Amino acid sequence: MPAKEDPEFIACMEDVLDVYERPYDPRFPVVCMDEKPYQLLGDARSPLPMVPGSDQKIDSEYVRNGSVSIFAFIEPLGGTHHVSVREHRTAVDWAEEIHFLVDEMYPDAEKIVLIMDNLNTHKPSSLYKRYPAEEARRILKKLEIHYTPKHGSWLNIAEIELNVMTRQCLSRRIDQIDKLRRELQAWELDRNSQAAKVNWHFRTSDARIKLASLYPKFDA
Question: Does an H or E element contain 209, and which?
Fold first, then answer.
């Protein structure tokens, strides 16, 4: 949490919370995105297979095979999910993911309401690093961007989705990027077949009570 009496934090927080209170409208889908670094790990020694009466046994020693970045998008009220794996997390990587969001995930939306953290690559300028100005501007005109505050990643519903993904899909060693992509594609398909939604309960009215210490104090 931030320091007490932090107006910058509460301004961003209340902005995001207001977005979460909007009713579902497929013309203006609310989509949350986040990134997660992931370490590819292999086994230094072959595991002992599971046999009747005994679980599989895995040696504690492992081999590092480099790291990748997992991008996640979730539409909390629509139940749409998308995850992808990239070798890097540069401005160009983010721009290409946003291009996919606009043209592949929601081509018919009038405006995509995008919530994400204020990472240095999560900027409109990143689109101009990857695409000609006309194309970058076209993509940006489809977006309504809202940033979560610093020290406020818990306000991003995509972080919840990443935690679910980690528990359900990544609680074991995966040694190759292609294997990771296959596993996450299967997980994404399952989540979308369920149209898994997120019911967010924390409102601005709750924040003004439970997080009162973050709000500047004024004399009566």
Answer: helix 204-210
Flag whether the pTM goes above 0.70: yes
Residue 184: CB atoms within 10 A of its CB come to 21
SS (H, E, C) 91-137: HHHHHHHHHHHHHHHCCCCCCEEEEECCCCCCCHHHHHHHCCHHHHH
Taken in order 36, 199, 191, 78, is the CA torsion positive or negative? negative
In whole angstroms, give the CA distance from residue 100 to residue 82: 10
Residues in the chain: 220
Task: Give the Cα-Cα-Cα angle 91, 95, 97 (nearest 5 degrees).
Answer: 120
Distances (CA, A) of 84 to 97, 101, 215: 8, 11, 38
Token pair belonging to 122: 């999560």
Over residues 150-186, the pLDDT tens digits come to 989 899 999 999 999 999 988 788 889 999 999 999 9
